[in-house]
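Write out structure tokens for OBG-type G domain-containing protein.
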Amino acid sequence: MVFINVVLRNAKKLDVKYKFLDSIQIQVKGGKGGAGCPKYGGIGGNGGNVSLKVNDGVRLSDVLRQFPRKIVSAENGKDSKKHCIAGPRGKDKIVQIPPGVTVCEGNRRLGDLNKVGSSMLVARGGAGGRLETGYSATAAECFDLTLDLKLIADVGLVGFPNAGKSTLLAKLSRARPKIASYPFTTIKPNIGVMEFGDGRQVSVADLPGLIEGAHRNYGMGHRFLRHVERTLLLLLVVDIDGFQLSPQHTARSCLQNILLLNKELELYNADLVYKPCVLVVNKMDKEDSRRTYEEIEDKIHNLAGFNSTVSEEMQSDTVLNFSSVLPISAKHATAEDIDSIKKTIREVIDEHYGPPSLDDEIDLQDRCRRQISEQGQIVV
């Protein structure tokens, strides 16, 4: 337990250092309404509104730079006066945010802002004073909001720590994530872009490794899992020899890890297990790895049957349906091996979603670079 606490504490320190910012809290306040003028029947100006608007060129950190106190206030409406019977309306405040943001007030989800140019009114200004209100202004709205960024990538790499996700990303693209032989080397997202001979591009996100209990926010928990929701395809990566986080934790076999990843995804969001999925059984260069794979191959292809034989703590209500299972060694993969993996990923995406439009292809690199430029590394 001491081991994992130290690792996670260090990860949090690095998190601050590298400014991994995918969630912020702000207070939004509409402008106060202006007072009416009963002597002349004047109407006070309405207070301004606060809105969020998606701009592809901004980051969540830009919001904090613009509003360091985390308070966003619209302009107050002006009072009605003798020489200005109708008080001028207060100016609206528009907060520019990146695409892929979910807006919440407490536990209430207000909506998602994904499309560039889309907007959401989050705090209305107070109405100016008038006859009906005794010339007193009405109160403006004020809310405490959470803005959660969910990265938008075509493929999400999912696995326990040290499964080889970063090594695979480095081979699939020209990204250079940190790679080492200990858990939690990835503590911020990395995005790479796979390129094909015909100009097609597919973005791949390497996200921090899960641990058991991630759905309950253990480890990096929700901070990782929420990014999986927007991917088109899940690429599960498991070590053929299984995984053990520390001597104090239970060692899990390759098959058990597959089921545990399945369960973590399902418990976080049951819809995730219905996403298109490809399984990569990694580190096949290890001694006896081929024999081990042959022993479990049938169970992988009949995961539902194996699921019914394990303890309840590992069972899922719905098991993932793998479109393809790829036994590889990411570390020693040849160019032909990588081309085969890329071809499989592309075929599965196209089978479920169809080929992308030309416009989607043109803006892929810019979209990835802008949304991840501060959160992590992107290399094309």
